[in-house]
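Record filed below.
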Amino acid sequence: YHPKVYAFYNDVNNTIIVGSANLTKGGLEDNYEASARLDGQMANCKKKINQFIVDLIEGKEMVPATKELIEDY
């Protein structure tokens, strides 16, 4: 069991994806994975999601998915 939470926020949109897919070629293209995507008002629980993420990674280094990192991938 290894759930993933991807949260994308800006001043206009909120999108949260919760599921099992790894952020890899296999996870995004080839593997059988399950995820749920929440947009807009459904994703307005970002404070709770952010706290969940902080609790998961507390004490660990997190690497943001920057444009450069994605392009390098």
